[in-house]
Amino acid sequence: MTTLKRLQNNYLISYVSKPVGAMPVTRLLYPLFQLGNPQLRILRPNWFLTLVRPGKEQPPDTVQFRIPMEMTKCDVKNYLEKIYNVPVGAVRTRIQFGSNKKRNHLNQKVKQPDYKVAYVQLAQGQTFTFPDIFPEKERMPAEGSMEEMQEKFMEDEKQRQKLDPRRGGVTEWFGL
Amino acid sequence: MAASSSVGRVLTLCKQFQNVIRISSSINTQHCSTTLIKYQPLLYREKSPLAALSGYSPVSSVGQCRALHTTINRRGLEEFFDLPENWGETNVKSGAPWTAKQLRTKSNEDLHKLWYVLLKEKNLLLTLEQEARRQRVQMPSPERSKKVERSMIRLETVVKERETALRLLQTGQEKARPGAWRRNIFGYVYWYRFKEYAIPWHMNRRYKRKRFFTPKFVQPHIRLRIEQHLREKARKATLDKKTQSILKEKFPHVKVSAS
Predict the structure, then answer these.
(1) Is there a contact between B194 and B177 (Cβ–Cβ < 8 Å)?
(2) A162 located within any domain
(3) What confidence score (pLDDT) does residue B15 get?
(4) Rounded to two decimals, what is the model's pTM?
């Protein structure tokens, strides 16, 4: 019974939910670590990574992530190796300060949230380029659908707005 | 984990497969996983995170069979992105979120795996959202994020339910985290939840600053607070009564439900 073994270690990993309005991120209370304790294992991790396109040019083996503030370099390494099976060489992190400069219509300062960025270098000579996820696609709207009618209407409107082609590009500003 | 399941399972991999794969207990699970590598190209996203699209359904069978795990993760960083044919689409179809009722029928191992499937899906959607913001383009089917979020919350509740049930049966404790009713400096009694410390409480300076008792000069204010609360209640009751009497005058025939 695997659940029995878990009971002793994890009873203190309790969850406190944040107030309504915030993203339902549960706050973990980790059991205290003292020398000789077993390795802490987290079942069902509540951490989500966002792969982002680098703003500045990065070396070909570097992948850039936005990670939650609570994660460390070791956590990122284990996360990618265990869950995604990605060989990780080195991880460097930094915390990006979200600006507090902008003001809203009430002249109150509006804070953009801070976030942690991780630069992960892949091992075994692997490279990664951020792909183009929004390529231009030829979309033909379905026959008889709303989109087709709308598109046809827009095309007719544009045709009507155009000047008489016999004028050869001369505008209507002149009297003739 | 393979040893724990004495009852055998036969897994139908996905709807594309008609033949059922059965492994006898003598054969090693690892050996089985290698034989299925040739099916890899077809198993793209066989484990869809949303219930309606899932073609995966374990069927228990008679006889001694080992549990078989066939999802071999070979895609690495590609799992942060959708399937290439969905790139550039404006609408991506997705099924319904998992309900608590459906999740309660699944075993612990299945729930554990589902959590990671949902986690990967959420990472995918977060990367997609961020990239859409970067390229100033609308994210295709943003409702997927909410579906995954709700499924994860429901999974968490189901797992917690099971853990509380087990704890109640084994130890009789209702709460996972120990606590006590304590009075704070302001005179309020609340449920204080214990925190783990390396030193005893009488050596803990920060803990002693918290003071779980009310000083003497705060005592009179507690009574004043109670009086305020009662006055508030009385005001509310009289207001209710007044509105009811006015309404009764205006509409004598309307029946008022007993509240």
Answers:
(1) yes
(2) no
(3) 40
(4) 0.71
| Cα dihedral A66/A69/A73/A77 (nearest 10) | -60
Reading the block at residue A135, the tokens are: 């390529």
Yes or no, beta carbons of A50 and B130 under 8 Å apart: yes
Residues 88-127 of A with CB under 8 A from B: none
Domain-located, residue A112: yes
Domain count, chain A: 1
**Residue of A134, A137, A145 to mutate, interface with B, max B Cβ within 10 Å:** A134
Torsion, Cα A16 A47 B116 B73, to 10 degrees, reads -170
Q: Is A2 on the interface with B (CB under 8 A)?
A: yes
Distance CA B222, CA B228 (A): 10
- The answer to whether residue A83 sits within a structural domain is yes
Q: Name which of B33, B119, B136 to mutate to probe chain A: the one with the most chain A Cβ atoms within 10 A of its Cβ.
A: B119
In which domain, by residue range, is A69 found?
50-122
Backbone region of residue A124 per phi and psi (left: phi > 0; alpha: psi in -120 to 50; beta: other values)? left
| Matching residue, tokens 């060489």 | A89
Residue in this structure with the two tokens 């490279």, named with its chain if needed: A127
| CATH number for position A67 | 3.30.70.330
Would you say residue A2 lies in a domain? Answer: no
Q: Does pLDDT of A92 surpass 90?
A: yes
Question: 3-state DSSP call for residue B192?
Answer: strand
Three-state DSSP state, B193: strand
Q: pLDDT tier at A171 (50, 70, 90 boundaries)?
A: confident
- The length of chain B, given as a count of residues: 259
